[in-house]
Amino acid sequence: MEHLEFSFDHGSMAPANDFAHAGVVGSGNLEVLLERAELSGRCEAVVDTAIRGYERTWHKVLSDFVTRQGLADVRISINDGGATPAVVCLRLDQAAADLKGAPA
């Protein structure tokens, strides 16, 4: 198990909802929890993954996500079961849509 922590300063959009959840922990999948938090405009991410050695990939995927979504004051928690970057992006975008209050 590997535990990773990241911090990003890209965002400016505070979330409409308090939290959002997407996905399940399982082989090739992951669970994403986004929570509103007072972080002085930053986004913080914690990743717990069964796959070691992909810190740079996680940083790139999460940095791209925060930049694309423009989120600020959000805590990102990920429990990974070996998801590919495409699945990670899908789950993050699903959770972000819920956090922003997008219609289902």
TrEMBL record:
It holds the Pfam family ACP. Covalently binds the prosthetic group of malonate decarboxylase. It comes from the Bacteria. InterPro entries: Mal_deCO2ase/Cit_lyase_ACP (IPR023439), Malonate_deCO2ase_dsu (IPR009662). Keywords: Cytoplasm, Phosphoprotein. It is found in: Cytoplasm. Transmembrane segments: none annotated. Its main location: cytoplasm. GO terms for cellular component: cytoplasm. The modification O-(phosphoribosyl dephospho-coenzyme A)serine is found at S27. The keyword Phosphoprotein applies. NCBIfam families: malonate_delta. This is Malonate decarboxylase acyl carrier protein. The lineage of its organism: Bacteria, Pseudomonadati, Pseudomonadota, Betaproteobacteria, Rhodocyclales.
